[in-house]
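Here is the promised in-class demo. Please do not try to memorize the tokens; focus on the logic of going from shape to residues.
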């Protein structure tokens, strides 16, 4: 999927960098351009991307200090400059725009929904968001910010892929190490998803220098399958797992199915998200090890497990010794983790508003409709 990537805020800039670097290292060229936007000058310095500093007249390059309403305001005020900067990058080849942001802070949290709205107004290609949820141990301001931002982003973007900061953290990591690990994991998963839809001849095949035969590819994933999977809108998640391929092709039936189970049951960006409205299974590996029977069985298993009748599946030929499974889930609003998060956010907002009686437990679908969490726009 030929993508223009925009990172907003500190987390957005770092994750956009990790993604652009991964795409480049792998030679995928799915990310055609990447831009980082922030109201804090220091967070833009040192990023190997083109950057735009917003809100300079208001916060003088010092960031919005976790105030996401101010984050939304400065993005709105400087929207013309940002759109101008993007207009030279989004062209007739662009198939999707991805905005990535940490939803718990100020600039990314407030800025991402505003930017999504502005881009939707102008461009026909889908505008997707990658929204990073604060970990459970982050303070109430982060939770309340993320709840408000998510509610707004889910409405403004064509789909929002959620990454829970608690999902891929390794125990024992410091916060900085933890972030670096999470960012690498996001880069690999989203990076594969974007590359999976690219035609084979467009890939430089950094892993094998063109050694993949073109006519393997009747079931190769197409960009339109990613877009169709996300068409229902709302919230999405990605799962991923990888195992060594066996030399015996028959054994790879089981390798594909067990790797897919791991991807969905233990490897998703939103733990416990297994029911979905639609899903896409991408099996990556050498064409001769990607067992057709295995991929078909794995796809049927995803159908049963997610309860969705709309599960697409396909291959992603890669010259590696592993078989990887990437599962994209769309329509995960009802998952327990989203419910728990929206309750946590509503409680945090009630705490900050001193209206604790407003924080009764409700299900997540309802929290996207009711007034417990303020809308940002
Ligand atoms: N995955 C990941 N999350 C991060 C990273 N840096 C910060 N976060 C998370 O993002 C949230 C804070 O957002 P930031 O991006 O730091 O804030 P900002 O948008 O720059 O906003 P201000 O600093 O208030 O202007 C918190 O929930 C952090 O846990 C990162 O590198 N990776």
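The designed amino acids, position by position:
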């Amino acid at each position: 999927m030929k993508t223009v990537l925009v990172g907003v805020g500190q987390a957005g800039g770092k994750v956009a960098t990790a993604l652009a670097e991964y795409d480049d290292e792998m030679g995928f060229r799915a990310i055609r351009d990447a831009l980082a936007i922030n109201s804090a000058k220091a967070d833009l310095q040192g990023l190997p991307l083109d950057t735009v500093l917003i809100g300079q007249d208001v916060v003088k390059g010092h960031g919005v200090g976790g105030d996401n309403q101010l984050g939304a305001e400065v993005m709105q005020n400087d929207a013309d400059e940002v759109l101008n900067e993007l207009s030279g990058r989004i062209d007739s080849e662009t198939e999707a725009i991805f905005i990535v942001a940490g939803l718990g802070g100020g600039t990314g949290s407030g800025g991402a929904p505003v930017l999504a709205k502005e881009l939707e107004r102008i461009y026909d290609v889908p505008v997707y968001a990658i929204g990073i949820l604060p970990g459970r141990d982050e303070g109430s301001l982060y939770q309340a910010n993320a709840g408000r931002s998510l509610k707004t982003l889910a409405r403004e973007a064509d789909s929002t892929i959620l990454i829970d900061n608690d999902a891929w953290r390794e125990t024992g990591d410091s916060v900085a190490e933890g972030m670096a690990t999470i960012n690498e994991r996001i880069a690999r998963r989203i990076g594969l998803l974007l590359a999976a839809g690219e035609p084979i001849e467009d890939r430089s095949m950094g892993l094998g220098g063109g050694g993949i035969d073109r006519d393997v590819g009747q079931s190769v994933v197409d960009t339109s399958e990613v877009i169709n999977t996300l068409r229902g809108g709302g919230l999405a998640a990605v799962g991923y797992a990888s195992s060594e391929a066996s030399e015996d092709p028959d054994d790879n039936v089981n390798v594909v199915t067990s790797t897919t189970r791991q991807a969905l049951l233990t490897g998703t960006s939103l733990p416990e998200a297994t029911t979905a409205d639609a899903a896409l299974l991408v099996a990556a590996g050498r064409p001769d090890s990607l067992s057709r029977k295995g991929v078909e069985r794995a796809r049927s298993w995803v159908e049963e497990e997610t309860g969705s009748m709309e599960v697409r599946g396909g291959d992603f030929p890669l010259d590696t010794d592993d078989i990887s499974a990437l599962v994209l889930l769309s329509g995960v609003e009802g998952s327990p983790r989203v419910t728990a998060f929206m309750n946590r956010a509503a409680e945090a907002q009630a705490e900050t508003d001193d209206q604790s009686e407003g924080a009764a437990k409700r299900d997540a679908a309802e929290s996207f409709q009711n007034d417990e969490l303020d809308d940002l726009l």
